[in-house]
Amino acid sequence: MIDLAQQRLGSKVVYSTDEFFAKANRINKMEEPVFIPNKFDGHGKWMDGWETRRKRSKGHDYLIIRFGKQGKISKIDIDTSHFNGNHPSFASIEACYSKKKIPQRDIKWKTILLKKKINPNSHNIFSVKGSSIFTHVKLNIFPDGGVARLRLFGEISVHKKMYGNKLINLSSLLNGASIIACNNEHFGKAENILAPGKGKNMGDGWETRRSRGKNFDWIIFKCVKGKINNFEIDTHHFKGNYPDMCSIQASYINEKKTNKFIIKNSKKWKLLLNKSKLKPHKKHLFKNKLMKNNEVNYVRINIFPDGGISRVRIFGIAK
Asked: Which of 31, 175, 185, 263 has the fewest C-beta atoms under 10 angstroms from its C-beta?
């Protein structure tokens, strides 16, 4: 699953009742929240999240996030890291489907999380049932307080007709690609390699710990089903810690197969790229010579022996 609320997908806070102590648009930042002990601003203690003033009237505070990409929500993380004594007592979440930037007043909101007790300085994790597609979510906090991050994990809703016959990045998060598994992501999250745009720094890529012995690292992701034309392995920013070599495998797997099945059988997939030498801080371009006529929806990248990759881009025609 990916965080549908994250800013790099284009998701934005479009409304909040109050943001006196800390701006609402910090709540869906990708970076983990930080605490800076001696940092204050004109309104008081600076906090890395959304924080409202102490409520002195009836009602409660809330904000609305508009997704950059509509999708289905399966899991919620109301992260109150560093908020202790100034966290909300309770929270609930509603969601809706609307083509407006801010949903119209008569829109029907669906409650996807009933009013729940919220713990301080914690990841408050909840599961969501249902398969509805949403464009907006409303986080209600009772009565007031601060939340560091709101993560809404799920799947982007896409349709093939969105792509047409154009060459697209089959491995882009924006097109619905998602990480299935990796053996290690010690220094950088696996999801970063599917992100749009150029990596900002080494932290904005996938980087494994230094391996010892004969081991190698790997990552598996689901992509848009299609025929591959060409692909890129981008080691931007990775200069002394790029992989020495890499190989790529791909396959078409029935959607009903479990992740456990996919991981177990991935070693047997056909080679899309034979073991090839990589260079530091460079975009490596390859043509598909081994699987020209194959439709694929899963890709496995092996790096030898370890290191970091900024982005992977698999270009092809969606099928």
From this structure: 31
**Residue 194 pLDDT class (50, 70, 90 cuts):** very high
pLDDT at 163 over 80: no
CA distances, 191 to each of 50, 174, 244, 286 (Å)? 25, 12, 21, 22
Query: Do residue 206 and residue 300 come from a single domain?
Result: yes
Q: Is the peptide bond between 305 and the residue preceding it cis, with omega within 30 degrees of 0?
A: yes
Helix, strand, coil fractions of the chain, as percent rounded to 5: 10, 45, 45
217-234 and 308-309 beta bridge pairing: unpaired
Give Cα 317 distance to the centre of its chain: 24
User: Cα(33)–Cα(151) distance, rounded to whole angstroms?
Assistant: 12
**Neighbour count for residue 106 (Cβ, 10 Å):** 5
Q: Which residues are CB-contacts of 305 (< 8 A; sequence separation ≥ 6)?
A: 211, 214, 215, 216, 217, 243, 244
Read off the pLDDT of residues 133-151 as tens digits, 9 standing for 90 and up: 999 999 999 999 999 999 9
Mean pLDDT of 258-269: 94
| Whether residue 55 is found in the same domain as residue 133 | yes
